[in-house]
Write a structure and sequence with these properties.
The complex is a heterodimer.
Chain A lengths: L1 H26 L17 H10 L6 H13 L15 H36 L4 H15 L2 H16 L11 H30 L2 H9 L3 H17 L3 H18 L5 H11 L2 H29 L12
Chain B lengths: L23 H8 L5 H11 L1 H19 L42 H36 L1 H16 L2 H11 L4 H28 L2 H8 L4 H9 L4 H24 L11 H10 L8 H28 L6
The chains are: A mainly alpha, B mainly alpha.
Chain lengths: 313, 321
């Protein structure tokens, strides 16, 4: 087990290293105007060269890459160029991360809780009206782009329930809608898998045996079917984290929540290269970590998993 | 047959001891089943009323999207209408007989823009689906079939699969210039992964069946084994992935447009239309500019999604009776 975890950790680190390298190399393909901020027009050629030289951008690429690794190892993400010129990125992020984290956790727990509940109730009412409604919901959420139904939720639900349309950290009611919107996708995917596993399990022989023994339906459900269907749910944790990341980018900017997702949209529009680079790295690390966590949890909870399988999943 | 035989000699007559004529149809009846893969697929598919309904919608939509510019009285999606009375742009004109869906905030006909946007988005979606399929099939087939490549490709896959798709999409479109090829490229960079993995898994299952072993013993080249023995099994999956690539691509396009990395605004696309609509959505009387594109987009994505899924179920031989 420990060996597997270690191997998986090494794999994640290698992935992270490659991501850092790729992001770095791609970012160097951007036009150089990006490094000067607002006063690009005012500088002449020699001044520009001097500034670039100062920033280490005229060094050979492998030296730059080495410097970049060292920088990241020290936890230094560089300085913002346009968004808030010359301010350390880590200082900017420090104020943003708590919001994203709170919403992320809220979203994950909402989607897990409601998704599994919905999935269970759909499986119990298979082929009845509730199952149909749930399926329609899942199809709708998976097919229609999140960007579209988020907009309509913001537009109409705020009207109907008199919720604030923009986020305000002091008003608890303004937390509700963003968190719910963000978890809709996760709820749908959890409900779909939960239903599928439950239906599969219900057709298994051991359920027939339990019924023949005279166990009540309730008992079969709780102590047999649910337990077996729960384990595979863990493997969708990473994808729920990825959903949350994608959702947060959009939702945070839609409700102007001062978190990292909103920041990413902001700095992309203002072309602040170093901040985009930092945020991309942070988001990919979260994704990589989420997958790592999912695999480890899966290995702990499901003894049937063969750990010697190597990389293939 | 169930006639009771009273006396044994009653049941016996001469006819029973004559040779029967050879009838080919009758002879085949026992062993021959007229199973055809595509016909069964179609039968299972057509049993699903909802899927048929969406199939009709897609056919109508596709036809109309293609012929719409050639119909009479259609305006150009980028033409700015000038109001004759005031000499100004006909801004935010309510939907009426001339402008079925009204005009947008600079006086362009929303009806024409929605169809043109649908064309753009479907074009992107279909191309992304095609490229995903091509890349996914080639890489997946090599991955599953050539054992010496298995390890390398698995490692590459793990690295790529570990990075959130959204982030790859954002990064690539941020670096490249916004255009249709950029979008297609960025979406393909992430889209082929799931396809390749699925194909690989199927091939690993199928590749060591006896007929493939026999084929290999006879010296059939790998490329031929892949194309003749393996790929026909995968047709349904490939179709499913391509059908699902269309809603996926439309979704990505809307998302990228929102964060400012989508197509230039002079190309009408569903993403651009939604974004334009979002700009004016706080004014109650102008909400139609968001609602019409959103409805069009939802119909398209839901139809393709449902058809793709039902077709995948229908194409699975286990569901054939």
């Amino acid at each position: 087990m420990i060996q597997y975890a270690f191997k998986r950790l090494i794999q994640s680190l290698i992935t992270l290293l490659m991501v850092i390298t790729i992001v770095f190399l791609l970012m160097r393909q951007m036009p150089e105007e990006g490094y000067f901020g607002t006063n690009y027009e005012k500088l002449d050629y020699a001044q520009r060269e001097a500034i670039l030289e100062n920033m280490g951008l005229r060094d050979p690429i492998h030296v730059q890459l080495k410097n970049f690794y060292m920088q990241i190892l020290k936890g230094d993400l560089g300085k913002s160029i346009i968004y808030r010129p010359k301010v350390e990125i880590s200082a900017i992020l420090k104020a943003k991360i708590p919001y994203s984290l709170k919403f992320g956790v809220a979203t994950l727990s909402l989607s897990l809780g409601f998704g599994i509940l919905l999935g269970i109730s759909m499986a119990l009412n298979k082929d009845r009206i509730w199952d149909r409604v749930g399926t329609a919901y899942i199809v709708f959420i998976s097919a229609v782009p999140a960007a579209v139904y988020y907009l309509f939720l913001q537009l109409y639900v705020t009207d109907i329930f008199r919720l604030p349309i923009l986020f305000n950290p002091d008003k608890p009611s303004s937390w509700i809608l963003p968190a719910i919107s963000m978890s809709l996708g996760g709820i749908a995917s959890y409900a779909m898998w939960m239903r599928r596993y439950m239906v599969d399990e219900l057709n298994m022989d051991y359920v027939k045996l339990a019924r023949a023994k005279g166990l009540s339906n309730r008992k079969i459900m709780i102590s047999h079917v649910l337990r077996n269907a729960f384990v595979p749910m863990i493997q969708y944790l990473p994808s729920a984290i990825l959903y949350t990341i994608a959702g947060s980018i959009y939702i945070e900017s839609l409700y102007s929540i001062p978190g990292m997702g909103g920041l990413l949209v902001d700095v992309i529009q203002r072309q602040d290269n170093t901040l985009v680079q930092a945020l991309v790295l942070i988001y990919s690390s979260i994704g990589i970590f989420g997958l790592f966590l999912g695999d480890i949890l899966m290995a702990i909870l499901d003894p049937r998993i063969k750990l010697e399988r190597g990389g293939t999943r | 047959m169930s006639k009771k035989v009273e006396k044994l000699s009653d049941g016996i007559n001469k006819g029973l001891f004559e040779f029967a004529d050879y009838d080919e149809v009758k002879a085949q009846r026992g062993g021959y089943s007229n199973y055809s893969y595509w016909r069964s697929t179609f039968q299972v598919f057509s049993k699903n009323k909802i899927a048929i309904f969406f199939l009709y919608i897609v056919i109508i939509l596709l036809t109309f999207t293609i012929i719409q510019p050639y119909l009479p009285n259609q305006k150009s999606p980028t033409q700015i209408t000038i109001d004759e009375n005031t000499g100004m742009q006909l801004r935010n004109h309510e939907p009426d007989k001339e402008f079925y869906f009204g005009t947008n905030s600079i006086g362009q006909d929303l009806w024409a823009r929605i169809w043109s946007g649908t064309r753009t988005s479907l074009f992107i979606g279909i191309l992304v689906g095609l490229w995903d399929a091509i890349l996914g099939i080639i890489i997946g087939a090599l991955w599953g079939y050539v054992r010496s490549l298995d390890r390398i490709i698995t490692e590459i896959y793990n690295v790529l699969d570990n990075i959130p798709n959204t982030i790859i999409l954002v990064l690539l479109t941020y670096i490249m210039r916004p255009s249709i090829p950029t979008l297609i490229f960025a979406m393909c960079m992430t889209g082929w992964l799931s396809m390749a993995r699925f194909i690989r898994n199927q091939i690993v299952i199928i590749r060591d069946r006896e007929y493939n072993l026999a084929s290999r013993c006879l010296g059939t080249p790998t490329s031929r084994i892949i194309t003749k023995n393996l790929l026909p099994y995968l047709v349904s999956v490939i179709m499913l992935q391509m059908a699902l690539a269309i809603p996926g691509a439309i979704g990505s396009e809307v998302f990228l447009t929102y964060i400012g990395l989508g197509l230039p605004i002079n190309i009408p696309s569903l993403g651009n239309l939604i974004n334009e609509g979002r700009g004016v959505m706080m004014v109650e009387s102008l909400r139609y500019q968001l609602i019409f594109p959103a409805i069009a987009l939802s119909i398209i994505t839901i139809s393709f999604y449902v058809i793709g899924n039902v077709f995948a179920d229908a194409a699975d031989p286990r569901n054939h009776v």
